[in-house]
Design brief:
The protein is an alpha/beta fold and 627 residues long. Helices cover 32% and strands 18% of the residues. The strands form six sheets. Strands 4-20-5-19-18-6-9-11-10-17 form a ten-stranded mixed sheet, sandwiched between helices. A six-stranded mixed sheet has the order 3-25-24-23-22-21. The longest helix has 20 residues.
Length: 627
């Protein structure tokens, strides 16, 4: 936990202890409130809401009854959001593809903890989120029974700790809190995902009728009702199914919310099929055109007026009035944008093809255009053969369509924290292959058992699918797409696994008897967990220092010791167990902005530690921390 630099009268100043928790959202909100309203600070450093109410005046609703959504467990959702994670993400380079060159991530673990751990490094950096969460059908919803201990439950579920009776399980509709449990699962994840979105970012969420209504209300609260863009209806199948007496359901929904009004919905590309209704029957010099609607959608009294024709006839307005004011309409008649029919009984509006840069997105997504579940199954079959290891993938064409609407381009990041079989990664890689782009993906997937020996978990299916996609793309691209001689296709992904921090922490949940306390104290003295490598520790410090997991790292030798230079030397990390004054000076001479060292490296030499503080300060190091 972070603490202010302390002055020791005998040894001088001490470095700051590094905070090994994920981003503290509650503390950040408090700081922002105090920055805006310093007068609400109490003597104990807390917030005085009465003063805040006075400062805001009539803007505060003090009524006891107001419109809103509530459910059992909602208060615990906020506690969960506000509780930082003390976990880490361990690098798994052997499971990865092109570790050194890729910026794509596949993270195996509970997505709640993963989203917390990504807050420092990826805050406000994600262009688009696409998720296909559990639909809460009664047999596909995995959740921690002990909701307040997500990390511990996950570790037990994956066999990383001894089981204590907690488990992940299905949420059956026989449970009296069936919908509440689903909302308790979704709310904090949506909240954390919003933090990761850029101001011009957008989220697409796939859902069916079971939880559509609840999801819409959750999103209105998390993203703001004013940021709702659309409910798209996706025709996921075309063949009738089911039994007589019931509807054959052929659709799911895609809820679309923007982060803010900075988001711009993109038009879609036009094809010859879209232009086939445009022609030029009257040799208009402005080119091909089609007729457009001239009626107003809503009743407007000021748009109710008669139109005089060239021969003196009168054309009555439609029930809601014309689309334009009288002056605007007459101007369009003069320019020829609006013409009269041959019998002068109606007006015709011309929409010119040359004025259209793209095609307006529509809320009905037909399977023939964006893919169906059958197409998605075929994609997996093409990769794995007949023995497909996953039942409910999304078609990559649907996700690529969302990327087009969101304007995902260049090296934008796409996040999917219910990754399933990896359709989102497949879509992003395919888009990059088509235009030589460098879009990046971050996937998170729980290692949910599949019951198979070849791919024991869904996370294994996801990783293997992406490996096979990359192999296929590499085979296709070798010598094609204008690649320079000797250049290799830039496809790959890094795998990280959710785990307990590499550093042991004081466990306040343990019994407070003498023997247990003694063991806790021993762990605190040698506080690096057994079996953890220098690479494990390095990436935890990288992540919790606020650097993305794919930040370039250069290994250097200074004063005979190994030092890691992060982001071109902005951050220097040394994991040596024996630090020297020569090493301290060598690191300082490299002029990094920040330095992190192992506290154990000072071997209780407070004199050396005090010298390090002064040396780094003299050389302009703005942050020196130990762990």
């Amino acid at each position: 936990m972070s603490q202010d630099v302390a002055i020791n009268p005998n040894t001088g100043e001490q470095p700051e202890k590094m905070d090994l928790r994920s981003h503290d959202i509650a503390a950040e909100r408090v700081c922002e409130l105090l920055r805006l309203f310093p007068e609400i600070r109490t003597e104990a450093g807390k917030l005085d809401f009465e003063r805040l109410r006075l400062a805001l005046g009539e803007s505060v609703d003090v009524g006891k009854e107001r419109y809103g959504m509530n459910w059992p467990g909602k208060a615990d959702c906020f506690k969960t959001i506000q509780t930082p994670s003390v976990a880490t993400l361990r690098p798994c380079s052997k499971e990865s593809v092109n570790w050194d060159s890729t910026e794509n991530l596949i993270i195996e673990g509970d997505n709640l903890e993963v989203l917390k751990l990504l807050q420092k490094s990826y805050l406000g950096k994600v262009k688009m989120v696409f998720i296909d969460p559990p639909y809460n059908t009664g047999n596909d919803f995995i959740y921690p029974d002990n909701y307040s201990e997500s990390l511990h439950t996950y570790l037990e579920y994956t066999g990383q700790t001894d089981a204590e009776g907690r488990k992940f399980n299905t949420n059956t509709d026989a449970d009296g809190r069936f919908h509440s449990k689903w909302m308790n699962m979704m709310y904090p994840r949506l909240y954390l995902a919003r933090n990761l979105l850029r101001d011009d970012g957008v989220i697409f969420i796939s859902i069916d009728d079971q939880e559509y209504d609840n999801l819409r209300k959750l999103c209105n609260e998390v993203f703001g009702e004013e940021n709702f863009l659309a409910t798209c209806i996706w025709q996921h199948s075309v063949q009738p199914k089911g039994y007589s007496g019931t509807f054959s359901v052929h659709h799911n929904y895609l809820l679309v919310y923007q982060k803010s009004t900075d988001f711009m919905l993109c038009d879609l590309e036009r094809t010859e099929e879209h232009n086939k209704n445009y022609s030029n029957p009257d040799n208009d010099p402005n080119g091909d055109w089609r007729s457009g609607d001239v009626r107003n959608a809503l009743y407007r009294p000021n748009l109710i007026y008669d139109i005089s024709t060239p021969s003196g006839k009168s054309i009555k307005p439609p029930p809601n009035g014309w689309r334009w004011s009288k002056d605007t309409l007459n101007a369009k008649i003069r320019t020829g944008e609006i013409i009269f029919s041959a019998d002068e009984t109606r007006i015709i509006r011309k929409i010119y093809l040359k004025t259209l840069e793209g095609r307006t997105p529509e809320t009905i997504l037909f399977g023939k255009n964006v893919g169906t579940t059958r197409d998605a199954a075929t994609e997996l079959k093409d990769l794995f053969g007949d023995d497909v290891p996953f039942d409910t993938p999304k078609p990559t064409s649907l996700i690529k369509h969302m990327c087009s609407l969101a304007g995902v381009s260049a090296d934008d990041i796409v996040l999917d924290f219910f990754a399933g079989s990896g359709s989102t990664a497949h879509a992003v890689l395919s888009l990059n292959a088509a235009d030589s782009g460098r879009r990046r993906f971050i996937l998170a997937q729980l290692p949910e058992p599949t019951g198979r020996n070849d791919y024991p978990t869904i996370a294994d299916v996801c990783k293997e699918r992406v490996r096979r996609v990359i192999k296929g793309l590499n085979d296709e691209e070798s010598g094609t797409l204008g690649m320079r001689k000797g250049e290799k296709p830039n496809h790959g992904f890094r795998v990280y696994e959710l785990a307990e921090s590499n550093f042991t922490e004081w466990d306040a949940r343990m019994e407070q008897d003498a023997e247990t306390l003694q063991k806790q104290m021993e762990l605190h003295v040698e506080h690096i967990r057994d079996g953890r490598s220098a690479e494990d520790i390095l990436y935890e410090l990288l992540l919790k220092s606020g650097f993305p997991l794919t930040t370039p790292i250069e290994k250097k030798t200074l004063a005979g010791k190994t030092v890691h230079a992060i982001a071109g030397g902005m951050l220097m990390i040394c994991l040596e167990g024996e630090l020297t004054l020569e090493l301290i000076r060598a690191i300082a001479d490299a002029k990094p902005e920040r330095v992190v060292l192992l506290d154990a490296g000072f071997a209780k030499n407070d004199q050396l530690k005090a010298n390090a503080v002064q040396t780094f300060r003299t050389k302009g190091v703005t942050s020196f921390k130990t762990v």
